[in-house]
Amino acid sequence: MSTGMETRGEPVTPANTVDDTTVDIAALLERGRTLSTPVLKAAVERLAPPMDTVAAYHFGWIDAQGRPADGDGGKAVRPALALLSAEAAGAAPEVGVPGAVAVELVHNFSLLHDDLMDGDEQRRHRDTVWKVHGPAQAILVGDALFALANELLLEIGTVEAGRATRRLTTATRKLIDGQAQDISFEHRERVTVDECLEMEGNKTGALLACAVSIGAVLGGADDRTADTLEAYGYHLGLAFQAVDDLLGIWGDPDATGKQTWSDLRQRKKSLPVVAALAAGGPASERLAELLAADAKSNDFDSFSEQEFAARAALIEEAGGRDWTAQEARRQHAVAIEALDGVDMPPQVRAQLTALADFVVVRKR
Amino acid sequence: MSTGMETRGEPVTPANTVDDTTVDIAALLERGRTLSTPVLKAAVERLAPPMDTVAAYHFGWIDAQGRPADGDGGKAVRPALALLSAEAAGAAPEVGVPGAVAVELVHNFSLLHDDLMDGDEQRRHRDTVWKVHGPAQAILVGDALFALANELLLEIGTVEAGRATRRLTTATRKLIDGQAQDISFEHRERVTVDECLEMEGNKTGALLACAVSIGAVLGGADDRTADTLEAYGYHLGLAFQAVDDLLGIWGDPDATGKQTWSDLRQRKKSLPVVAALAAGGPASERLAELLAADAKSNDFDSFSEQEFAARAALIEEAGGRDWTAQEARRQHAVAIEALDGVDMPPQVRAQLTALADFVVVRKR
């Protein structure tokens, strides 16, 4: 299998002189997908019917009628990171595969449950599982994917696998905490920027952090190395989420697969919103008035494009858009800096750096 | 702490001459509760608000208004088994405590999700969590309890803890398979006795089996010993469920906390029903006709006591009640026999035997 990387055959050069512009991001993501998808599919096949079918629908392998489909399985940033994680510890990328699959299983467990809790009807351009197969299947298959993640790691049977499972469990608990915070924010008028960052760190940072440590732990890395890799992953997750929050308001629906002004329609207290509300000034105050009225409005569901566009314009005018873009760059910088703390092969470092760059410039 | 057992001070006698009539079941269950509840409460306190409160409500520690309550925490058979499990491997009962708590957490994760999926509004004489705190909290807190179970075991950090977590994960997967089967049975006209037993083995047998092996594994038992203890637990679980199925139709609502004819109201394809349908003869055929008509009826929800009583009488007349009572005794016998395969202290064996006896004669 060509990963687009082994062929470069560069001499080993000091870490900070490797040029990350030579990294082929598409190939890196494709390698993660290619190595992890067969293992993911085999794991899902262990599920009793009809859970196997429901899970296959969720992953985009079949359509709602059960016919084979070639769905959009997502960007696959996490599997790519898990393989690089193994390489960062000096192991072969394949060592990270069970970790990559376990992280994907946990991520998709959370998507299945969150979509149901949030009432989201669309994901990756398709109807969500609860919409197609009902709420009970969304709950049940989510539970099954979570259990499967632990099963896959623990059946390796090594001390390292136990440590990896423990890190995954910690990340999963944070993920759940983050979802609890996210839900509670919807019922509150004001959320501080710090509260929003904490929620996003739990909901997005923790699992991305785990993706970056899990391969290394499976490859025998010590806790200090794993913690440092997690610091990179955590801040990368916050950068990722800041970009997601921008796309959730100003993203191109054709690229994101979501509605226009998606997060505004869902009254999400995302970073641009909380930053705009915290900024003060006329636009910030006008936005606060509008959102307070929206919270009590019975007509919210029939709002026009123009009404959401007006709110988005106020968020931008109050500085929420710029602040969030800067926050993405700040978190990106902290992530990159964390890589200094781990002694890893320079090409792995270049790839982790390039992935971080990719995360902040992506359009979907 | 008095456990009601250390004081007997009998000489060690051969296993099969210990008289299990001297075992104080109430004290045995109380010991499990006393040793595990503080650890369970401390674990639940780790949850971020409002999940800690929702979980405390579920466990009966507070009421719907958040006031302290002294709720019915269930029979606590599983914690009692987990402590005996440690003793069966020659360890102190305390060694089984993290296992007891982890099993309770998984059991309650499944109750939270199952009550929501099944639309059950009452449990242990109280409104269920989704009814009081909403579906999102029932999903979220269930997820959190499941994650907490793994966290609690894995933070022990030993190889034994990893093995225990793996067994718990396997049991959890079976639990989920069983719930999937149970849900699918509701939409089917006919379910065979074997299918029903398989479902009940997954839904009840697997976790009870894990309760009986987890303490031993934490205490250093080898896989053969753990497997044999699981055989006892699995068949005990099937006996337990057969009795539950009898109580689900003919139980005293004051004792069970459920409605009269509870399982019939929920169209459950439980053992007495499937055995009656499989029996043949006039009563069996009449029952089949009635249930087929019920499945299409729009008035089912307004059925009177008499209509359910008539169905229960047909089940009994067709032999479903007797067959299920016999099945409980058969599974009980197989469970007891499995104990021959493990070399354990005779008083532990007597206690496991007495607990098995208790399970088949209980009224709630």
For the sheet with most strands of chain A, the description reads: 2 strands, antiparallel
Query: How many domains of chain A, as an integer?
Result: 1
Query: Which CATH C-level class of chain A is it?
Result: Mainly Alpha
The radius of gyration computed from the alpha-carbon positions of chain A, rounded to a whole number of angstroms, is 21 Å
Largest interface: A-B, 41 and 41 residues
Report helical residue fraction of chain A: 55-70%
Enumerate how many helices of chain A there are, as a single number: 16
Distance between the termini of chain A: 27 Å
Write the layout of secondary structure elements.
2 copies of one chain form a homodimer.
Chain A lengths: L24 H20 L6 H8 L18 H12 L8 H22 L3 E2 L2 E2 L1 H5 L1 H20 L4 H28 L6 H26 L4 H28 L2 H4 L5 H4 L5 H9 L2 H15 L8 H13 L2 H19 L7 H16 L3
Antiparallel strand pairs in A: 1-2
Helix pairs in contact in A: 1-3, 1-4, 2-6, 3-4, 3-8, 3-16, 4-6, 4-7, 4-8, 7-8, 8-9, 9-15, 9-16, 12-13, 12-14, 12-15, 13-14, 15-16
